[in-house]
Design goal:
Layout lengths: L4 H6 L3 H16 L6 H13 L4 H13 L15 H4 L2 H9 L6 H8 L8 H23 L32 H12 L5 H12 L4 H13 L28 E2 L5 E2 L29 E2 L5 H12 L3 H14 L3 H6 L4 H15 L2 E2 L6 H6 L2 H12 L6 H8 L4 H31 L1
Parallel strand pairs: 3-4
Antiparallel strand pairs: 1-2
Main location: cytoplasm
Keywords: Cytoplasm, Oxidoreductase
GO molecular function: L-leucine binding; oxidoreductase activity, acting on peroxide as acceptor
Length: 428
Amino acid sequence: GRLEAVTQQMGYHPQYLDSFLKTQHYLMHMDGPLPFDCRHYIAIMAAARHQCRYLVNLHVLQFLRAGGDPQWLRGLEFIPPKLRNLNEINKILAHRPWLITKEHIEKLLKISEWSWSLAELVHAVVLLAHCHALASFVFGCGCEQDEGLGGRGSLKPLSLGNQCFCEATAGNSYSQELLRINRKRSLDSCMELDSLRERMQRIQVETEGRDEMRLLQQDREEGEGQGAEAGVQAEHCSDPSAGLSPLLDTDGEVTGATNLACYMQDPDFGYQDFARRDEDQTQVFRVQDYSWEDHGFSLVNRLYSDIGHLLDEKFRMVDGLQSSAMAKRQGCEPSVFKRGIWNYIHCMFGIRYDDYDYAEVNQLLERMLKVYIKTVTCYPEKTNSEMFDRFWKQFKHSEKVHVNLLILEARMQAELLYALQAITQYMI
């Protein structure tokens, strides 16, 4: 079988891929506070917030393999109240993580027979943040549009042999095979870049794509070239059974979905610019007061053993990726360019670094690059081929993947910082 699309893209940076696969495998398949079927259902809920059929379909298959109740796949009305109560923080973390408070945490931990334990909640929060951020990568690299996993074909485990990317672990023949394939066939060649563009041009984005680009280009607030607000546009599911239930084709294979709204409540709730917040209700998140290194790492590792080490390795791995050519074209050092992208993403979520001059963002990042980064970060389901093509022109394919990995990790860390700070405040 061909390589699954996410690992194929991440394979351009094999050290990062190993780190990602270890984390993914640990979250989904190793010992932890949550039952295995619940883990995959939480992943479905998270991916549905961004209408990411690619991830929803993948985890539907894994949910059923783990012995999950097929009735749950009819929608939120058919799952246990304990799991359904997670919907509120799923919605907030996905779109406006700065709104999460210790009251949200307390509510989940104090609901009589449906209460969560702290360990279970930390596991769930990491899963939510992981899947939200992975949805950004899926849309940003065009994996959602890949034939066969965009809700149009049958759900087969697209992987090397019979191994799904959720189940792969680092240090095995899988990564070695990726290295062999990448040495043999580089997508950086002009021929394959042309093929990539042709594939992207087949996507049906004419109307929505043009409208979104106009909205993004009209937003000049703070001169940062930020995109227009775009919430999740999804129909309300009046009949819960009309949502994604695993349909069997004539060969007995699970087929794709037509509607993800049954996995969401309040589908119109989406990202809003942090700069437009109510000053009396929300304050800037200052990293010197609560950081991953000094606070988040120890808390998450204490409540969900070893996951902190895996996440920390992943954050460090993406920071250590080489980007000399990419930075050189922008006229700066690699570390400066990467920090500009990372801090720009955190800035969009209200996270600020006192030791950083944010004027550098406008100097380092061209307008179309910033529009692309904001769209993939804040409303990835709005990413389209026009933006993809305009952003990609001066980048090699491996560099495009690198930018999307920075988006993935910066976004995930932002969500974790807000959630873990709220848990810390509850505990205090």
